[in-house]
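B., you asked whether I could sanity-check this one before it goes into the benchmark set. Here's the sequence:
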Amino acid sequence: MVSGPDGFVTNLQTTGVAAGAQGGVIMNPTRNAALLVVDGLPKPPIGHVYVVWMTRGNDHVNAGVLPIDSQGHGTLYI
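And here's what the prediction gave me:
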C-alpha cells in the first residue's frame, strides 16, 4: 500500500471514548486508496456499528462500516 514514493502512514488520535484504542491510516495517493487499521476498540452493542466518516472542511463522506473482531481489531479499505 505504501510502496510508492508518495505513500505514507498517519496515526489516529484517540478521543478518550475508547481508552486504549489506537490505530492508523496507510495512504497511497497515487492509487487514491487507504487502509484504516484499529486495535483496542470494544465491539459495539448489538444493532450498532462503527461508521467511518471522511471530512474535508464542511464536507462529510461515509467511507463505510468498520468491522471489529472479538479482539478489538478492525480494518477497512477506503
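One thing to flag: The chain has a mean pLDDT of 87. Otherwise nothing jumped out at me.
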